[in-house]
Amino acid sequence: MANVKMFNISGSEVGTIDLNDSIFAVEVNTHVMHQAVLQYLANQRQGTQSALTRAEVRGGGRKPWRQKGTGRARQGSIRSPQWTGGGVVFAPKPRDYSFKLNKKVKRLALKSALTTKVNDGKLVVVDELTVNPKTKEMAAALNNLNAVKSLVVVEDDNKNAVIAARNIPTVKTASVSTVNVYDILKYDTLVLTKNVVAKIEEVYA
Asked: CA 184, CA 135: separation in Å to the nearest integer?
């Protein structure tokens, strides 16, 4: 069973914590992590871009000049794609970019990402993250933990930590229900509280 040090918000070591090997010590599968990241990014896309095709752009009903005899290339409409103000060829239209990923694949991707952080020594466990809703306090705590660029996973009822961290540009907060592979891999350090570790092991074991 994996064993990591546990700290308080002052950066002092206060003990160790055992991690469930079925979550924090699995065989890392880079392919499923890649699939999970692709799905996350695809699901973030609004898909609202739109442009007019030659059938939708206004005007151009009359042939601009006769077919032959002018010495110019034949044209059927001033709204053809080669004309300024003409329609767009294969114009983008609103669409849904999201796609489904099997539940087992998503769970394996999350476990692989967590294992990666443990293997790299980038998982920091704190006994509790009790701070006032002040940016200065959260910044000082993360600095003590050497987690300046970090994803901080907190309990759902820890509103103070969320408020204290939201003005720090290199820090993002999440709960157990909203944590995802993309954020785990994006941020340099993963900060979990002792209660969050227990919750993750309860949900994903």
From this structure: 22
